[in-house]
Design brief:
This is Thioesterase. Belongs to the thioesterase PaaI family. GO terms for molecular function: 1,4-dihydroxy-2-naphthoyl-CoA thioesterase activity. It holds the Pfam family 4HBT. The protein is an alpha+beta fold and 139 residues long. The protein has one domain (5-138): Hotdog Thioesterase (Thiol Ester Dehydrase, Chain A). 24% of the residues lie in helices and 42% in strands. The chain is built from 3 helices and 6 strands; from the N terminus they run ααββαββββ. The protein has helices at residues 5-15, 20-23, 55-73, and strands at residues 27-31, 35-42, 79-90, 97-108, 112-120, 126-138. The longest helix is centred in the middle third of the chain and has 19 residues, at 55-73. 32% of the residues are buried.
């Protein structure tokens, strides 16, 4: 990556203005050559009716971080990234604080990418384990 981590994270934030990512309060907080990390606040805006994190919000977090990772790892190529398959196992509930999603590439093809995205709470306990497949399309 040619830009500084701060510049990359600022660009991620700018791309997310007026999107679901911003609506859910998702923030990109770390990026390396191998991973992208985002966090999401857990509060009533992402709760299901019984007061715990909605699985759909977890999946939205995971797809957001995995898709952003695909965008970043394509290194400025003129492409569109789309999630084409996602699966999630929700193993623990959480009702407050933050959850953190860390996308790590399992397969980095020119067209298809496969991501492993564990979501953990502030104690680093696994909340959900997500697998995301993205496709890179030429613009």
């Amino acid at each position: 990556m040619n830009n500084s981590k701060e510049e990359i994270l600022a660009a991620c934030a700018a791309m997310c203005k007026n999107t679901l990512i911003e609506t859910l309060g998702i923030e990109f907080i770390d990026v390396t050559d191998e991973t992208v990390v985002a966090r999401m606040p857990v509060n009533s805006t992402v709760h299901q009716p019984d007061g715990v994190l909605h699985g759909g919000a977890s999946v939205a977090l995971a797809e957001s971080v995995g898709s952003m990772a695909s965008v970043l790892f394509m290194k400025g190529q003129e492409v569109s990234i789309r999630g084409i398959e996602i699966s999630a196992n929700h193993v623990k509930s959480v009702s407050e604080g933050y959850v953190y999603a860390k996308a790590k590439i399992l397969h980095k093809g020119r067209t298809i990418q496969l991501w492993s995205i564990p979501i953990v709470n502030e104690k680093d306990e696994l909340i959900s384990m997500v697998k995301l497949t993205t496709i890179t399309l030429k613009k």
